[in-house]
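User: Earlier you gave me the apo prediction for this protein. Now I'd like the version with adenosine-5'-triphosphate bound, so I can compare the two side by side. Same sequence as before, with the ligand SMILES added.
Assistant: Got it. Here's the input I'm using:
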Amino acid sequence: MEKIKFERVTKKFLIRDDQKKGALREFTAIQDIDFSVKEGEFITLVGPSGCGKSTLLDLLMGLSRPTKGRILIDGREIDGPGLDRGIVFQQYALFPWKTARGNIEFGLEAKGIPKSEWKERADHYLDLVGLKKFADRYPHELSGGMKQRVAIARSLAFNPEVLVMDEPFAALDAQTRETLQAELLRIWEKTGKTILFVTHGIDEAVYLGQRVVVLTANPGTVKKIVDIPLKNWLEDADIKSNPKFVEARHEVWSLLHESEFIGANI
Ligand SMILES: Nc1ncnc2c1ncn2[C@@H]1O[C@H](COP(=O)(O)OP(=O)(O)OP(=O)(O)O)[C@@H](O)[C@H]1O
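And here is the structure of the complex with adenosine-5'-triphosphate:
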């Protein structure tokens, strides 16, 4: 079943016109973005810097409206922020004065979940991200990877149907990033969430996504959606050496670099 549908989504901004003093002109950040995400699917998005990934996520979160087109969730048009969508950012955005559990409980309070449910829910999700023993620690007592686990637990705790992730592992060291990638797949399998994950990392996009949406440089459009034929990520410890992984990775890499090569040939 279709969970999210981007229907010819275009977003334009008004920016200062450098040619004419005091005048404004239209700038198209994304144009005619058109694809669907299936219920329970893990989809990754990659694209050159400035191609409009954050703009697209803002639209999906209901923080701004498309200039043209629309975004549907379960067939309903998005008209603002909602509890059906949760987001995890690159920076953990945790309150330093609250413990791991306190940070999750705060999210539950903000979402209007009854107080009687907070502790149990917070503990359940802390357990899910492997932080059961760290519930009473403050952010400064946690590593970067642990903080990001708390952020993931906080987003999952109010049980959104769609989890949006905006380069959530970009600030972590390579080893922690790999661990969290595998963890996220495990959590995804367990919870069955629909996940839309934005990244700059080609390896990360191919490793996590069932499909990788490759965007073009400005204005951002869908260049191609690459199917990733691998199914048994977690059983294969060295999946990144699998020829199918290598091939998919190369395809995404080529799509991202095509425009650069064309430029280089001129
Ligand atoms: N509020 C705004 N007003 C004017 N222009 C904007 C606004 N928001 C974004 N843009 C422009 O739209 C384009 C896309 O920006 P966006 O931040 O979505 O890209 P991105 O793909 O997320 O970039 P990065 O990968 O570097 O994070 C950029 O050229 C940016 O300058």
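For your comparison, keep in mind: Residues 98 and 138 are 6 Å apart (CA to CA).
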